Amino acid sequence: MKYMGSKRHMLENGLGEILRSQLPHAKRFIDPFAGSGGVINYVAVERKFKKPIIAGDLQKYSVVLARAVIGRTAKVDVERIKKSWIELAKKEVEKSTLYIKSELLDKDYSGDIKKQVMMSRKLCESPSKTGPIWNAYGGHYFSPKQAIVFDYLLKNIPNSSPNKDICLAALIIAASRCAAAPGHTAQPFQPTKGAGKFIKISWGIDVFKSCEAALKELAPMHAQKKGEAHVMDAEKLIPKLKEGDLVFIDPPYSGVQYSRFYHVLETIARGKCGEVSGVGRYPANNERPQSKFSNTSQSLKALDDLLVALAKRRVMVIFTFPKGKASNGLSGDKVAEYSQKYFKLSKRRTHRRVISGKFSTLGGNNKKLQKNSKVKKSRIDSEELVLLLKPKGK
Ligand SMILES: C[S@@+](CC[C@H](N)C(=O)[O-])C[C@H]1O[C@@H](n2cnc3c(N)ncnc32)[C@H](O)[C@@H]1O
Predict the structure, then answer these.
(1) Does the Cβ of 33 fall within 6 Å of ligand 1?
(2) Which of 36, 62, 172, 258 most suits a substitution to test ligand 1, by most atoms within 8 Å of the C-beta?
(3) Span 8-73+222-255+295-391: which CATH code?
Protein backbone atom coordinates (compact mmCIF):
# COMPACT_ATOMS: atom_id res chain seq x y z
CA MET A 1 0.00 0.00 0.00
CA LYS A 2 1.01 3.65 -0.33
CA TYR A 3 2.64 4.43 3.02
CA MET A 4 5.25 6.99 3.92
CA GLY A 5 7.69 5.77 6.52
CA SER A 6 7.43 2.15 5.44
CA LYS A 7 10.54 0.09 6.14
CA ARG A 8 10.37 -1.95 2.90
CA HIS A 9 13.58 -0.50 1.43
CA MET A 10 15.47 -0.83 4.71
CA LEU A 11 14.45 -4.46 5.16
CA GLU A 12 16.36 -5.26 1.99
CA ASN A 13 19.31 -3.07 2.98
CA GLY A 14 20.59 -3.93 6.42
CA LEU A 15 17.53 -3.92 8.66
CA GLY A 16 16.60 -7.39 7.45
CA GLU A 17 20.10 -8.61 8.33
CA ILE A 18 19.89 -7.33 11.93
CA LEU A 19 16.42 -8.83 12.35
CA ARG A 20 17.56 -12.19 10.96
CA SER A 21 20.49 -12.28 13.38
CA GLN A 22 18.32 -11.57 16.44
CA LEU A 23 15.02 -13.39 15.76
CA PRO A 24 16.36 -16.90 16.55
CA HIS A 25 17.15 -15.76 20.13
CA ALA A 26 13.83 -13.97 20.74
CA LYS A 27 10.94 -15.38 22.77
CA ARG A 28 8.50 -12.89 21.17
CA PHE A 29 8.66 -10.09 18.60
CA ILE A 30 7.07 -6.74 19.48
CA ASP A 31 6.45 -3.75 17.19
CA PRO A 32 4.85 -0.96 19.29
CA PHE A 33 4.89 1.59 16.39
CA ALA A 34 3.61 -0.78 13.71
CA GLY A 35 2.49 1.75 11.01
CA SER A 36 1.79 -0.05 7.74
CA GLY A 37 2.84 -3.36 9.31
CA GLY A 38 5.78 -3.81 6.91
CA VAL A 39 8.12 -5.15 9.59
CA ILE A 40 5.42 -7.30 11.21
CA ASN A 41 4.73 -8.90 7.81
CA TYR A 42 8.43 -9.48 7.20
CA VAL A 43 8.87 -11.26 10.54
CA ALA A 44 5.62 -13.24 10.39
CA VAL A 45 5.42 -14.15 6.71
CA GLU A 46 8.89 -13.93 5.17
CA ARG A 47 10.86 -15.11 8.23
CA LYS A 48 8.06 -17.44 9.44
CA PHE A 49 8.82 -16.54 13.07
CA LYS A 50 7.48 -19.38 15.20
CA LYS A 51 6.74 -17.42 18.37
CA PRO A 52 4.09 -14.78 19.19
CA ILE A 53 4.19 -11.36 17.57
CA ILE A 54 2.61 -8.33 19.25
CA ALA A 55 1.81 -5.12 17.37
CA GLY A 56 0.72 -1.75 18.70
CA ASP A 57 -0.03 1.68 17.31
CA LEU A 58 -2.02 4.78 18.22
CA GLN A 59 -4.02 4.38 15.02
CA LYS A 60 -6.65 1.76 14.42
CA TYR A 61 -5.97 1.24 10.70
CA SER A 62 -2.43 0.16 11.56
CA VAL A 63 -3.69 -2.35 14.13
CA VAL A 64 -6.26 -3.72 11.66
CA LEU A 65 -3.50 -4.26 9.06
CA ALA A 66 -1.32 -6.07 11.61
CA ARG A 67 -4.17 -8.17 13.02
CA ALA A 68 -5.20 -9.29 9.53
CA VAL A 69 -1.87 -11.14 9.36
CA ILE A 70 -0.78 -12.02 12.90
CA GLY A 71 -4.32 -12.76 14.10
CA ARG A 72 -4.43 -16.10 12.26
CA THR A 73 -2.26 -19.11 11.52
CA ALA A 74 -3.73 -20.32 8.22
CA LYS A 75 -4.51 -18.91 4.80
CA VAL A 76 -8.11 -18.01 3.96
CA ASP A 77 -10.37 -18.91 1.04
CA VAL A 78 -10.65 -15.78 -1.14
CA GLU A 79 -13.59 -17.06 -3.21
CA ARG A 80 -15.71 -17.70 -0.12
CA ILE A 81 -15.01 -14.27 1.32
CA LYS A 82 -15.62 -12.67 -2.06
CA LYS A 83 -19.06 -14.28 -2.26
CA SER A 84 -20.16 -13.33 1.23
CA TRP A 85 -18.74 -9.81 1.12
CA ILE A 86 -17.80 -8.24 -2.24
CA GLU A 87 -20.62 -9.86 -4.25
CA LEU A 88 -23.18 -8.90 -1.61
CA ALA A 89 -22.01 -5.28 -1.52
CA LYS A 90 -22.07 -5.19 -5.33
CA LYS A 91 -25.70 -6.35 -5.44
CA GLU A 92 -26.77 -3.79 -2.84
CA VAL A 93 -24.90 -0.78 -4.22
CA GLU A 94 -26.23 -1.26 -7.75
CA LYS A 95 -29.72 -0.61 -6.40
CA SER A 96 -28.68 2.58 -4.62
CA THR A 97 -29.91 5.91 -6.05
CA LEU A 98 -26.62 7.60 -5.18
CA TYR A 99 -24.72 4.97 -7.15
CA ILE A 100 -26.98 5.44 -10.19
CA LYS A 101 -26.59 9.24 -9.97
CA SER A 102 -22.79 8.81 -9.67
CA GLU A 103 -22.64 6.70 -12.83
CA LEU A 104 -24.63 9.30 -14.76
CA LEU A 105 -22.39 12.10 -13.49
CA ASP A 106 -19.25 10.24 -14.60
CA LYS A 107 -20.69 9.91 -18.13
CA ASP A 108 -21.89 13.53 -18.35
CA TYR A 109 -18.60 15.14 -17.35
CA SER A 110 -16.02 12.56 -18.41
CA GLY A 111 -14.14 15.06 -20.66
CA ASP A 112 -13.87 17.90 -18.17
CA ILE A 113 -12.18 17.00 -14.87
CA LYS A 114 -12.69 20.44 -13.31
CA LYS A 115 -16.45 20.33 -13.87
CA GLN A 116 -16.57 16.66 -12.89
CA VAL A 117 -14.90 17.42 -9.55
CA MET A 118 -17.16 20.39 -8.82
CA MET A 119 -20.35 18.45 -9.66
CA SER A 120 -19.08 15.42 -7.73
CA ARG A 121 -18.55 17.54 -4.61
CA LYS A 122 -22.06 18.89 -4.96
CA LEU A 123 -23.55 15.43 -5.39
CA CYS A 124 -21.71 14.10 -2.33
CA GLU A 125 -23.26 16.84 -0.20
CA SER A 126 -26.57 14.96 -0.41
CA PRO A 127 -26.82 13.07 2.88
CA SER A 128 -26.13 9.35 3.01
CA LYS A 129 -26.56 7.10 6.03
CA THR A 130 -24.85 4.07 4.47
CA GLY A 131 -21.34 4.93 5.69
CA PRO A 132 -18.94 7.81 6.37
CA ILE A 133 -17.02 7.94 3.06
CA TRP A 134 -19.66 9.47 0.74
CA ASN A 135 -20.16 12.72 2.70
CA ALA A 136 -16.65 13.07 4.13
CA TYR A 137 -14.46 12.24 1.14
CA GLY A 138 -16.63 11.85 -2.02
CA GLY A 139 -15.63 14.40 -4.70
CA HIS A 140 -12.30 14.92 -2.91
CA TYR A 141 -10.21 11.78 -2.39
CA PHE A 142 -12.69 9.52 -4.19
CA SER A 143 -15.14 9.84 -7.07
CA PRO A 144 -18.79 9.65 -5.93
CA LYS A 145 -19.05 6.13 -7.39
CA GLN A 146 -15.93 4.98 -5.51
CA ALA A 147 -17.17 6.63 -2.31
CA ILE A 148 -20.55 4.90 -2.34
CA VAL A 149 -18.89 1.57 -3.16
CA PHE A 150 -16.55 1.98 -0.17
CA ASP A 151 -19.56 2.66 2.06
CA TYR A 152 -21.40 -0.47 0.89
CA LEU A 153 -18.28 -2.58 1.31
CA LEU A 154 -17.88 -1.20 4.83
CA LYS A 155 -21.54 -1.89 5.62
CA ASN A 156 -21.14 -5.54 4.54
CA ILE A 157 -17.88 -6.32 6.38
CA PRO A 158 -18.20 -9.75 8.11
CA ASN A 159 -18.92 -9.55 11.87
CA SER A 160 -16.31 -11.92 13.21
CA SER A 161 -12.55 -12.46 13.08
CA PRO A 162 -10.45 -13.36 11.22
CA ASN A 163 -12.55 -12.48 8.13
CA LYS A 164 -13.59 -9.14 9.64
CA ASP A 165 -9.94 -8.07 10.01
CA ILE A 166 -8.91 -9.39 6.58
CA CYS A 167 -11.77 -7.61 4.77
CA LEU A 168 -11.22 -4.37 6.67
CA ALA A 169 -7.48 -4.54 5.92
CA ALA A 170 -8.22 -5.16 2.22
CA LEU A 171 -10.52 -2.13 2.24
CA ILE A 172 -7.83 0.03 3.89
CA ILE A 173 -5.25 -1.07 1.32
CA ALA A 174 -7.69 -0.42 -1.55
CA ALA A 175 -8.50 3.06 -0.15
CA SER A 176 -4.82 3.91 0.04
CA ARG A 177 -4.36 2.81 -3.60
CA CYS A 178 -7.48 4.60 -4.91
CA ALA A 179 -7.13 7.91 -3.04
CA ALA A 180 -6.47 10.86 -5.34
CA ALA A 181 -3.65 12.09 -3.13
CA PRO A 182 0.14 11.86 -3.09
CA GLY A 183 1.18 8.88 -0.93
CA HIS A 184 -0.87 10.01 2.05
CA THR A 185 -4.19 11.69 2.64
CA ALA A 186 -3.20 15.07 4.07
CA GLN A 187 -4.70 16.76 1.01
CA PRO A 188 -6.41 15.46 -2.12
CA PHE A 189 -5.22 16.50 -5.57
CA GLN A 190 -7.07 19.53 -6.89
CA PRO A 191 -8.40 19.72 -10.49
CA THR A 192 -5.64 22.04 -11.69
CA LYS A 193 -3.84 21.86 -15.05
CA GLY A 194 -1.00 19.84 -13.53
CA ALA A 195 -2.83 17.60 -11.05
CA GLY A 196 -6.14 17.00 -12.86
CA LYS A 197 -4.70 13.98 -14.65
CA PHE A 198 -3.84 12.31 -11.35
CA ILE A 199 -7.45 12.67 -10.19
CA LYS A 200 -8.59 11.04 -13.44
CA ILE A 201 -6.22 8.10 -12.89
CA SER A 202 -7.20 7.58 -9.24
CA TRP A 203 -10.92 8.04 -9.82
CA GLY A 204 -10.73 5.57 -12.68
CA ILE A 205 -9.70 2.70 -10.37
CA ASP A 206 -12.40 0.08 -9.80
CA VAL A 207 -12.78 -0.23 -6.01
CA PHE A 208 -14.19 -3.76 -6.18
CA LYS A 209 -11.24 -4.97 -8.24
CA SER A 210 -8.74 -3.14 -6.03
CA CYS A 211 -10.34 -4.68 -2.96
CA GLU A 212 -10.27 -8.16 -4.45
CA ALA A 213 -6.60 -7.73 -5.39
CA ALA A 214 -5.75 -6.71 -1.81
CA LEU A 215 -7.75 -9.67 -0.50
CA LYS A 216 -5.77 -12.03 -2.72
CA GLU A 217 -2.49 -10.54 -1.46
CA LEU A 218 -3.55 -10.86 2.18
CA ALA A 219 -5.10 -14.33 1.99
CA PRO A 220 -1.85 -16.37 2.13
CA MET A 221 -0.18 -14.05 4.67
CA HIS A 222 -0.39 -15.44 8.19
CA ALA A 223 1.63 -15.99 11.35
CA GLN A 224 2.96 -19.33 12.59
CA LYS A 225 1.64 -18.58 16.06
CA LYS A 226 -1.38 -16.38 16.75
CA GLY A 227 -0.32 -12.90 17.88
CA GLU A 228 -2.02 -9.78 19.18
CA ALA A 229 -2.52 -6.23 17.91
CA HIS A 230 -3.61 -3.34 20.13
CA VAL A 231 -4.63 0.29 19.59
CA MET A 232 -2.39 1.47 22.37
CA ASP A 233 0.21 4.10 23.24
CA ALA A 234 3.67 2.49 23.33
CA GLU A 235 3.91 3.95 26.84
CA LYS A 236 1.22 1.45 27.95
CA LEU A 237 2.40 -1.51 25.86
CA ILE A 238 6.05 -1.52 26.93
CA PRO A 239 5.40 -2.25 30.65
CA LYS A 240 3.83 -5.57 29.51
CA LEU A 241 7.10 -6.75 27.90
CA LYS A 242 9.42 -9.42 29.32
CA GLU A 243 13.10 -10.30 29.27
CA GLY A 244 13.76 -12.29 26.07
CA ASP A 245 11.47 -10.13 23.91
CA LEU A 246 12.90 -8.53 20.77
CA VAL A 247 11.40 -5.06 20.31
CA PHE A 248 11.46 -3.06 17.07
CA ILE A 249 11.27 0.67 17.69
CA ASP A 250 10.40 2.98 14.78
CA PRO A 251 8.78 6.08 16.30
CA PRO A 252 7.60 9.15 14.33
CA TYR A 253 10.24 11.61 13.16
CA SER A 254 7.82 14.19 11.82
CA GLY A 255 6.75 17.29 13.74
CA VAL A 256 3.34 16.88 12.13
CA GLN A 257 1.02 14.24 13.57
CA TYR A 258 0.63 10.99 11.57
CA SER A 259 -3.11 11.24 12.14
CA ARG A 260 -3.17 14.31 9.85
CA PHE A 261 -1.84 12.19 7.01
CA TYR A 262 -3.86 9.01 7.40
CA HIS A 263 -7.32 10.12 8.56
CA VAL A 264 -9.01 8.55 5.51
CA LEU A 265 -7.62 5.11 6.42
CA GLU A 266 -8.53 5.70 10.07
CA THR A 267 -12.14 6.53 9.12
CA ILE A 268 -12.37 3.25 7.21
CA ALA A 269 -10.92 1.31 10.13
CA ARG A 270 -13.36 2.94 12.59
CA GLY A 271 -16.31 2.81 10.18
CA LYS A 272 -17.29 6.34 11.18
CA CYS A 273 -16.17 9.93 11.45
CA GLY A 274 -17.67 13.21 12.56
CA GLU A 275 -17.73 16.53 10.70
CA VAL A 276 -14.75 17.12 8.42
CA SER A 277 -13.21 20.46 7.47
CA GLY A 278 -10.55 22.17 5.36
CA VAL A 279 -9.04 21.23 2.01
CA GLY A 280 -7.76 17.99 3.56
CA ARG A 281 -11.28 17.08 4.86
CA TYR A 282 -9.87 16.50 8.35
CA PRO A 283 -12.04 15.14 11.15
CA ALA A 284 -11.89 17.18 14.40
CA ASN A 285 -8.69 17.11 16.45
CA ASN A 286 -10.26 14.97 19.18
CA GLU A 287 -10.79 12.22 16.56
CA ARG A 288 -7.10 12.26 15.58
CA PRO A 289 -4.63 10.51 17.92
CA GLN A 290 -1.81 12.77 19.10
CA SER A 291 1.73 11.50 19.65
CA LYS A 292 4.27 13.11 21.96
CA PHE A 293 6.90 12.11 19.40
CA SER A 294 5.37 14.50 16.85
CA ASN A 295 5.38 17.41 19.27
CA THR A 296 8.73 19.25 19.26
CA SER A 297 8.37 20.37 22.89
CA GLN A 298 7.68 16.79 24.10
CA SER A 299 9.70 14.57 21.75
CA LEU A 300 12.99 14.47 23.68
CA LYS A 301 11.28 13.56 26.95
CA ALA A 302 9.17 10.98 25.07
CA LEU A 303 12.40 9.41 23.72
CA ASP A 304 14.02 9.37 27.16
CA ASP A 305 10.91 7.88 28.83
CA LEU A 306 10.68 5.23 26.10
CA LEU A 307 14.31 4.15 26.57
CA VAL A 308 13.96 4.05 30.37
CA ALA A 309 10.82 1.89 30.09
CA LEU A 310 12.48 -0.48 27.60
CA ALA A 311 15.65 -0.81 29.72
CA LYS A 312 13.52 -1.59 32.78
CA ARG A 313 11.99 -4.57 30.96
CA ARG A 314 15.51 -5.83 29.99
CA VAL A 315 14.47 -6.45 26.39
CA MET A 316 16.60 -6.47 23.23
CA VAL A 317 15.83 -3.47 21.03
CA ILE A 318 16.33 -2.69 17.36
CA PHE A 319 15.93 1.10 17.08
CA THR A 320 15.69 2.92 13.78
CA PHE A 321 15.64 6.66 13.18
CA PRO A 322 16.75 9.18 10.50
CA LYS A 323 20.43 9.99 11.16
CA GLY A 324 20.19 13.75 10.68
CA LYS A 325 17.89 16.17 12.47
CA ALA A 326 14.23 15.43 11.83
CA SER A 327 11.36 17.91 12.03
CA ASN A 328 10.26 16.69 15.48
CA GLY A 329 13.64 17.88 16.82
CA LEU A 330 15.12 14.38 17.30
CA SER A 331 17.92 12.75 15.30
CA GLY A 332 19.64 9.38 15.01
CA ASP A 333 22.62 10.87 16.79
CA LYS A 334 20.41 11.94 19.71
CA VAL A 335 18.85 8.46 19.81
CA ALA A 336 22.36 6.90 19.98
CA GLU A 337 23.45 9.36 22.69
CA TYR A 338 20.40 8.69 24.88
CA SER A 339 20.41 4.94 24.23
CA GLN A 340 23.95 4.74 25.62
CA LYS A 341 22.67 5.94 29.01
CA TYR A 342 20.47 2.88 29.48
CA PHE A 343 21.71 0.17 27.07
CA LYS A 344 24.87 -1.50 25.87
CA LEU A 345 25.44 -0.32 22.29
CA SER A 346 27.19 -2.84 20.10
CA LYS A 347 29.83 -1.31 17.81
CA ARG A 348 29.78 -4.29 15.40
CA ARG A 349 29.12 -3.20 11.82
CA THR A 350 26.14 -5.52 11.59
CA HIS A 351 24.65 -4.09 14.80
CA ARG A 352 25.03 -0.41 13.99
CA ARG A 353 24.11 0.48 10.44
CA VAL A 354 23.52 3.62 8.44
CA ILE A 355 21.19 2.91 5.54
CA SER A 356 20.98 5.34 2.63
CA GLY A 357 17.93 5.79 0.48
CA LYS A 358 14.98 7.99 -0.33
CA PHE A 359 12.82 8.43 2.73
CA SER A 360 9.57 10.24 3.16
CA THR A 361 9.57 13.64 4.85
CA LEU A 362 5.92 13.16 5.85
CA GLY A 363 5.51 16.80 5.07
CA GLY A 364 7.91 18.03 7.66
CA ASN A 365 11.57 17.17 7.42
CA ASN A 366 14.24 19.60 8.49
CA LYS A 367 14.36 22.58 6.09
CA LYS A 368 18.18 22.74 5.98
CA LEU A 369 18.29 19.07 5.09
CA GLN A 370 15.79 19.64 2.29
CA LYS A 371 17.79 22.59 0.96
CA ASN A 372 20.97 20.54 0.78
CA SER A 373 19.38 17.57 -0.80
CA LYS A 374 17.73 16.79 -4.12
CA VAL A 375 14.16 17.42 -3.02
CA LYS A 376 11.71 15.25 -4.86
CA LYS A 377 8.47 16.46 -3.40
CA SER A 378 7.83 14.40 -0.32
CA ARG A 379 10.78 11.99 -0.58
CA ILE A 380 14.36 13.09 -0.07
CA ASP A 381 17.81 11.47 -0.01
CA SER A 382 18.47 10.61 3.57
CA GLU A 383 20.24 8.24 5.94
CA GLU A 384 18.64 6.05 8.57
CA LEU A 385 20.46 4.77 11.59
CA VAL A 386 19.72 1.25 12.84
CA LEU A 387 20.97 0.35 16.30
CA LEU A 388 20.95 -2.89 18.24
CA LEU A 389 20.52 -2.14 21.96
CA LYS A 390 21.33 -4.83 24.54
CA PRO A 391 20.32 -4.71 28.20
CA LYS A 392 23.23 -3.55 30.36
CA GLY A 393 25.12 -6.29 32.20
CA LYS A 394 24.27 -8.95 29.61
C1 LIG B 1 7.50 5.74 11.47
S2 LIG B 1 5.90 5.08 11.62
C3 LIG B 1 6.17 3.37 11.69
C4 LIG B 1 6.34 2.76 10.34
C5 LIG B 1 6.40 1.25 10.32
N6 LIG B 1 7.60 0.73 10.92
C7 LIG B 1 6.24 0.70 8.90
O8 LIG B 1 7.10 -0.07 8.42
O9 LIG B 1 5.23 1.01 8.26
C10 LIG B 1 5.46 5.50 13.26
C11 LIG B 1 4.11 4.97 13.75
O12 LIG B 1 4.03 5.18 15.17
C13 LIG B 1 2.70 5.50 15.52
N14 LIG B 1 2.77 6.20 16.82
C15 LIG B 1 3.11 7.49 17.06
N16 LIG B 1 3.20 7.72 18.38
C17 LIG B 1 2.91 6.56 19.01
C18 LIG B 1 2.84 6.15 20.37
N19 LIG B 1 3.09 7.00 21.34
N20 LIG B 1 2.52 4.87 20.63
C21 LIG B 1 2.25 3.99 19.62
N22 LIG B 1 2.30 4.32 18.32
C23 LIG B 1 2.63 5.58 18.00
C24 LIG B 1 2.17 6.30 14.34
O25 LIG B 1 0.78 6.24 14.30
C26 LIG B 1 2.87 5.62 13.16
O27 LIG B 1 2.05 4.62 12.63
Answers:
(1) yes
(2) 258
(3) 3.40.50.150
